[in-house]
Amino acid sequence: MFNENGDAPGRYDIFQYQINNRSTAEYKVIGHWTNQLHLTMETLQWTTGDSSLPVSVCSLPCQTGERKKVVKGVPCCWHCERCEGYHFQASEFTCEICPYEKRPGQNRTSCQPIPIIKLEWSSPWALFPVFISILGIIATTFAIVTFVRYNDTPIVRASGREMSYVLLTGIFLCYIITFPMIAAPDVVVCSFRRIFLGLGMCFSNAALLTKTNRIHRIFEQGKTAVTAPRFISPASQLVITFSLISVQLLGVLVWFSADPPHTFVDYGEQRTQDPSNARGVLKCDISDLSLICSLGYSILLMVTCTVYAIKTRGVPETFNEAKPIGFTMYTTCIIWLAFIPIFFGTAQSAERVSLPV
């Protein structure tokens, strides 16, 4: 007989090269072909030592989170490549990068939001400054209560009680600012940070500047005339002080108008190479430059006050305010010179969420 192509039907014996019981190799019939395949499966031998069929594929299936990189010219063969970094498996053959605020999941088949962190009240970085601030608030409150109780005594009146109250208010505000700096950022907290961050220093430096300016003018006028200089009364001193403070408040008002306070999540600060360690940091929208500008006016008052403190260092010993004010301003300048490089230095550290605050 012949098929439709004029060919005789094929009849074939199928052999397998096997090791027999005598440990010699020979060909053994394991099946035949007559119009279809007939195999005697139990007579087959494989290197695995059992009758199960070995895997006969060019490439094994890829695992979850891996893409297939097809070998050129061999469509049934591929290499498995893991989706690395912030990439996830978008399809069988492609990896795509996650959105900036997300990271790949554990199996890298999808993206999930990056956890958002902030400075917690329970953190040692928060507990220590809070403890110091509470001590400062207690001490300042004790001083204010003492002044109020003995408000009309000669020693309180001689110390310049009006300016002392302004100075104590500034010191109190410097301690209070610790709490909005640590609190979870929102619009209200960010507003308080902008207002009070430089205000406490401004109160203190304005009061000290007015004091040293008054001392300087009194002794300079005394060299050439016997009349007292103008604007040395307590009321005049308060007007001068609050005029200086109003400049800081005006600057903050302009800042509020030009750039209203708001929060944002900084995903770049802790975007590590390992996505599992990536974190977003909840922040107030206050840049380091804005922070320094906010404190810049207080720095200007501090430097000016230091100049007057140097000028009045030679006043008589009986005028006992000048030298302590001078000592205060020298140490304050040194602290500020240390603060600026430390602040910007810790902004690049591993604990950048906590240390700058």
TrEMBL record:
The family database entries (PROSITE patterns) matched by this protein are listed as: G_PROTEIN_RECEP_F3_3 (PS00981), G_PROTEIN_RECEP_F3_4 (PS50259)
Q: Which family is it part of? A: Belongs to the G-protein coupled receptor 3 family.
UniProt name for this protein: G-protein coupled receptors family 3 profile domain-containing protein
Arranged from A to Z, the UniProt key words for this protein are: Cell membrane, G-protein coupled receptor, Glycoprotein, Membrane, Receptor, Transducer, Transmembrane, Transmembrane helix
* Membrane topology, from the record: Multi-pass membrane protein
Protein's UniProt keywords contain Hydrolase = no
Any one GO CC term of the record: plasma membrane
Where is this protein chiefly located? Answer: membrane
Q: In what residue span(s) does the G-protein coupled receptors family 3 profile domain sit? A: 125-357
A molecular function GO annotation: G protein-coupled receptor activity
Give the lineage: Eukaryota, Metazoa, Chordata, Craniata, Vertebrata
* Organism in which the protein naturally occurs: Champsocephalus esox (pike icefish)
Which Pfam families does this entry report, sorted A to Z? 7tm_3 (PF00003), NCD3G (PF07562)
| UniProt keyword NAD present | no
